[in-house]
Amino acid sequence: MSSLTELSGGPALRQERRVVTEIPGPKSRELLARKQAAVANGVGTVLPVFVQRAGGGIVEDVDGNALIDFGSGIAVTSVGNSAEAVVRRTTEQLTRFTHTCAMVTPYEGYVEVCEELARLTPGDHPKKSALFNSGAEAVENAVKIARYATGRQAVVVFEHGYHGRTNLTMALTAKNMPYKHGFGPFAPEIYRVPVAYPYRWLTGPENCAQEAAAQAIDLITKDIGAENVAAMLIEPLQGEGGFIEPAKGFLPRMAEFAEQHGIVFVADEIQSGFCRTGQWFASEDEGLVPDLITTAKGIAGGLPLAAVTGRAELMDAAHTGGLGGTYGGNPVACAAALGAIETMRELDLPARARRIEEIMKPRLRALADRFALIGEVRGRGAMLAIELVHPGTKEPAPEATAAVAVACHRAGLLVLTAGTYGNVLRFLPPLVIGEDLLTEGLDILEGALSEA
Ligand SMILES: *Cc1c(COP(=O)(O)O)cnc(C)c1O
To answer: Which Enzyme Commission number(s) are on file for it (predicted)?
Structure first.
């Protein structure tokens, strides 16, 4: 087997942190001024260093700084940047053709990706897929499919859920700022119910799963009528909402309720899928077999691709021509997905994600013992987070969270924040990151927490 760095874009780039200017450096600041003049303000920036190259666990900027990557471009480059198989397959595809539109004249790569999705996603029932460009588009299409197949309109979503930035997916998303604020009116027939968030469940974590499920089911039954619900849509491990792991038992109970009432159970695995949580899909942890599953982010090593995969009879319900899009399943993006999946198999990336958890979680727990600022450590595999609170309370500490993130950035560690209350630091390293970089990143985090 080839080595981790060889297959993960690593060889082109020394796997070593290097901070040679202030962050951002002079060249990045110059580019930032140009960005401010030319790019809409609504498009934000977490860390304004301009990237020159990236690979393995390193992001190198135009000033020559090399940052440790705990973000993977938001859980996208799980196989690393410019992973060998992704580059090989996309390059080969680029020289043959770049686009025909799969709805006009199809090509093998599209079919091959759908065959892989049928093999890799949970459940051994007959499955089919349709490919799109972005996660939001996949979620929109899952709703279209569920509505068509059931002849019903209502969609049930959950507190802290995130599903995208298009009009329908804004409506499906819980958090107002920054995703929805000022962008209404939103699509109708969306109903939000409680999720089992153990850390913040008022009666404590013990009864959280049962009580949250009872409340959610009561609301669905009373306010909507289960017979009017087309789909129930949930992230099995919530991403933007703050890496909330619904208390064990909650998801199976909701899936069971959905099944009993002919509701299409949709797992949004756009962030948690493709090896991120130590399984191919986070649904596997509780043995869930979703009717439909949406994927994107980690699927194609950085190229834009998304999918809806699910029960063949549901996927086939809509009339021919009812699903699609000009670029959906672009041949270069499909080649990238096949390269990414090849890499995941070759390097056994689910095992790598579990190893990352093994290294990181005990360190994060030790930090939580030392710093009262850390209210909870949670997550699975290489999808881990700490929730920051005012010491001695559960009151969210978004200012401290932002300060710790900035201190990490200055020291050469790229971390992201998340959470409904903006008080979660989330860690999404590429699954191919070297263990030395992982440890060094945690040292930097420790230093940043000491400062805060
Ligand atoms: C990122 C994300 C989306 C939206 O995907 P885009 O590609 O940004 O449109 C939807 N659902 C979840 C769970 C996500 O993390």
So the answer is: 2.6.1.19, 2.6.1.22
Q: What pLDDT digit, counting tens, does each position of 391-421 carry?
A: 999 999 999 999 999 999 999 999 999 999 9
Name the domain boundary from 329, 346, 363: 346
Look at residues 286, 316, 346 and tell me which one is the last residue of a structural domain: 346
What pLDDT score does 7 carry? Answer: 58
pLDDT digits (tens, 9 = 90+) for 334-353: 999 999 999 999 999 999 99
Residues 123 and 178 reside in one and the same domain: yes
Q: Ligand 1: list residues with CB < 6 Å.
A: 134-136, 139, 162-164, 235, 239-240, 268, 270-271, 296-297
Sheet holding 416-418, edge to edge: 374-380, 383-388, 424-427, 416-418
Mutational test site, ligand 1, from 137, 140, 297, max ligand atoms within 8 Å of CB: 297
Global pTM?
A: 0.97
Same domain, 52 and 7: yes
The protein residue with its alpha carbon nearest to ligand 1, atom 15, reads: 271
Q: Is the pLDDT of residue 2 over 90?
A: no
- Contact (CB, 8 A) for 415 and 445: yes
